[in-house]
Amino acid sequence: MSAATTVSADRVREFSAAVLERCGLAAEDARSVGDALAWADLRAIAPQGIAKLPLLVRRLRSGGARPNAVVRIVAERGAFVRLDAGQATGHVAGVHAMRAAMTKARDHGIGLCVVGNTDSGSAMGYYASLAAAEGLIGIAINDTYPLMPPVGGTTRVVGNQAFAVAVPRDGARPMLFDSALSILSHTGIEEMRDRGAPLPEGIALDAQGRPTTDHDAAITGLIKSVGGHKGFGLALMWEVLTGVLSGNDRFASRISPIGDVARPQSVAHCHIAIDPRAAMPLDDFTRRVEALIVAVHASPQAVGQRVFAPGEQGDAVAERREREGISVTHAKVKELEALGRELGVAW
After folding, report:
1. Can you tell me the distance from the alpha carbon of 251 to that of 272, in angstroms, rounded to the nearest whole number?
2. Domain-by-domain residue ranges, the chain?
3. Which residues lie across from 177 on neighbouring strands?
4. For the structural domain made of 185-224, what CATH number should be given?
5. 3-class DSSP state for residue 227?
6. Measuring CA to CA, which residue among 139, 184, 142, 135 is closest to residue 164?
7. What is the pLDDT of residue 313?
8. Which residue intervals of 75-143 are DSSP H helices?
9. Which among 18, 41, 130, 322 counts the fewest CB atoms within 10 Å?
10. Which DSSP letter does residue 240 get?
11. If you compute the radius of gyration of the chain from its CA atoms, what whole number of angstroms results?
12. Cα-flanking dihedrals φ and ψ of residue 32, to 5°?
C-alpha cells in the first residue's frame, strides 16, 4: 500500500463543505471553508488543508466555535469597519472581513476591517488573494496563541502572527508573500521531529528560556522571532491591529490554543484592501508590478540557485497539484472516512 492517496482539489472542497454543513454551517460559509482548505492543500500547506477539518469539526461540536454564529458590525466609520464574529470559525470570519474591506476599498480607495471573537484563519494568503483576484491589493493578518518571547525574555507574549500581502497582476496569479514571524512554527518543528531531522541551533528556547535543539522542549518552550527584536516588534504591532483593535476580551498572551477545542480562542484578524485605481488606471499599476517582477528575475543567479518573485514557487506547486491531485496520507484518509461515515458524507 502506498503511503498516501491522491484526491482532487474539488473533492477537498466538496467533502469539507458537506461535512461542515452537517455540522450546522450555512452552505455559503461551508463552501468558503472548503475553498480555503483546498487553497492551502494546493500549495502543500498540509496542516492548514483538509488535514485540519477534523479539528474544525471538534471545535464546532465542543463549543470552541459556533456553527450558527452571526458576524455583525459593531463599529463603522468611513473606510473602517469592526466586526464581531460571534465565535464563527476563523475561515468564515476571515472571508466576511476581507469582503467587508474590499467593499470599503471600492468606495474609498482603501478599506480596513478588524474582526474579533473568532479562531485562527489558517493560511492568510487565501484572504489576501481574494482581494487580488478582484484587482485589489490584499493584506491579511491574524494573531494567534502565544509562542514567542520578547528578546531577552523567558515567557510567551505574542503569537507568530501569520500575515500575507497579495498584489494583482494582469493575466497571472497574484504576487503573494505569505508568512509568519517566528523562525519556525510548531507544525514545522513537529514535521522535522517526525522525519528525524535535527532542530538547528538558534531557533528555540526551552520552558526556562535556555537554548535548545530538542524538538519536544522547543514545542513546550518558546520559539524565536525572525530577525530578533525586529520580528518581535512587528508581531507586537500586529497584535495592536488585531487583538487590541478588535476589542477582544483576551488577546496576546491570553489567547487559547486552537487544540483547546471547548474554549473560544479569542483570535482577531485585520484585513486591508487597497484599490490601485485610486492612484492610477489598473493597467498602469499592473504594468508597474510586472516591471518590478522583471527586475527580480533579472538578478543573476547564484550557483545552484534560482530566483523567484514572492508566490511563484507556491503557484508552481498549485498548478501541478491542480493537474495531478493533492496527496493525503492514509492515516488522515482513514480519519476523514470515519468522520464522513459518522456524518453521512462519503469520502
Report:
1. 20
2. 4-182+225-280+318-343, 185-224
3. 165
4. 3.30.60.50
5. coil
6. 139
7. 96
8. 90-108, 124-132
9. 322
10. I
11. 20
12. -60, -45
What does the alpha-carbon distance between residue 177 and residue 125 come to, in Å, rounded to a whole number?
7
Instruction: Determine whether 257 is exposed, middle or buried from the number of CB atoms within 10 Å of its CB (0-12, 13-18, 19+).
Output: middle
Q: How far apart are CA 138 and CA 102, in angstroms?
A: 8
Q: Name the one residue in this structure whose C-alpha cell is 492543500.
A: 41
Task: Say yes or no: domain 4-182+225-280+318-343 is CATH 3.30.1370.60.
Answer: yes
Cα 290 to the center of its chain, rounded Å: 26
Can you name the residues that pair with 116 across neighbouring β-strands?
Answer: 84
Listed residue (64, 101, 41) closest to 314, CA to CA: 41
Question: Which secondary-structure segment (H or E) carries 330?
Answer: helix 330-343
Supply the pTM of this predicted model: 0.95
Contacts of 166 (CB under 8 A, 6+ apart): 125, 128, 129, 131, 132, 137, 138, 139, 174, 175, 176, 311
Query: If you search the block for the grid coordinates 508573500, which residue do you land on?
Result: 177
The predicted-structure confidence for 101-127, as pLDDT tens digits, reads as follows 999 999 999 999 999 999 999 999 999
Nearest Cα neighbor of 30 from 60, 3, 2 is 60
Q: Amino acid letter at 21?
A: E
pLDDT digits (tens, 9 = 90+) for 13-63: 999 999 999 999 999 999 999 999 999 999 999 989 999 999 999 999 999
Q: Which whole number is the average pLDDT over 317-334? A: 95
Helix (H) or strand (E) holding 315: helix 312-324
With CA atoms as reference, report the closest residue to 176 among 213, 145, 206, 133: 133
State the first-to-last Cα distance of the chain, in angstroms, to the nearest integer.
18
Nearest to 171 by CA among 135, 124, 137: 135
Query: CA 322, 325, 329, 330 torsion: positive or negative?
Result: positive
Tens digits of residue pLDDT in 52-65: 999 999 999 999 99
Do 9 and 42 meet the contact criterion of CB atoms below 8 Å apart?
yes
**DSSP annotation string for 41-59:** HHTT-GGGTGGGHHHHHHH
**CA gap 329, 319 in Å, rounded:** 20
